[in-house]
Write a structure and sequence with these properties.
By secondary structure, this protein is an all-alpha fold. It has helices at 3-30, 40-44, 52-70, 75-93, 109-112, 114-137, 143-168.
C-alpha cells in the first residue's frame, strides 16, 4: 500500500476513534457549550494536490461516521463537506508567494511552519465549526449562541490540534 494512502488511512481511523471515544464523551460530560472537534483535521491534512471532489468525498465519509456516533444525521457530514469545499480557497489564501512546492505534500507544521499552519487551521476550523453550529441550530435567530459555541469550540479544538500535531509530528 502506498505510504500516502496508508498514512491517511491511519489518520482517518485514529481521528475518528479519538473523536468518538474521547471528545464526544468530554463534550457530553461538560455541557452543550463545550465541544471539541478533532476529526476535521483529517481533511485539512490531506495532500495539498488532492482534487477538491475527493476531499469532499472523504470529508463526507468521515462526517457520516461521526454523525452515526453522535446521533446527528447529516450535520457533521454537511460541515465536513463544506469545509472540504473551502479547503482549497483557504490554502490558496495563505499560499507562499512561489506556491506550495513538491516538498509540501500536506499543510502540516512540519512542512509549512507553525505560524502558517495555525493561520490556515484557524480559518479552516472556524468555517467548519460555524457551519456545523449554524446547521445544527438551523436558524440564524440564535446567532449569538452559534457564535459563542463556535468560538469556544474553536479555542478548544485548536488547543487539542496543537497537542495532537506536537505528539504525532505529522509529515
Amino acid at each position: 500500500m502506498n505510504n500516502v494512502v496508508q498514512a491517511n488511512l491511519w489518520r482517518f481511523i485514529g481521528l475518528y476513534i479519538a473523536q468518538v471515544l474521547v471528545f464526544l464523551q468530554v463534550s457530553k460530560a461538560i455541557g452543550p457549550y463545550f465541544n471539541v472537534f478533532i476529526y476535521p483535521l483529517f481533511v485539512l491534512l490531506l495532500p495539498i494536490m488532492i482534487p477538491t471532489s475527493a476531499a469532499i468525498l472523504f470529508g463526507t465519509l468521515m462526517g457520516i461516521l461521526v454523525d452515526y456516533a453522535h446521533n446527528s444525521p447529516g450535520v457533521h457530514a454537511s460541515a465536513s463537506a463544506f469545509s472540504a469545499f473551502c479547503r482549497p480557497i483557504i490554502l490558496s489564501t495563505f499560499e507562499p508567494k512561489g506556491g506550495f512546492s513538491g516538498k509540501d505534500p500536506i499543510p502540516s507544521p512540519h512542512h509549512i511552519g507553525w505560524q502558517s499552519f495555525l493561520q490556515i487551521a484557524s480559518v479552516y476550523f472556524f468555517a467548519h465549526l460555524f457551519w456545523y453550529f449554524a446547521i445544527s441550530e438551523f436558524t440564524l435567530v440564535y446567532f449569538g449562541s452559534i457564535s459563542l459555541k463556535t468560538m469556544i469550540a474553536l479555542l478548544a479544538s485548536m488547543a487539542i490540534t496543537g497537542i495532537y500535531l506536537s505528539l504525532f509530528r505529522t509529515k
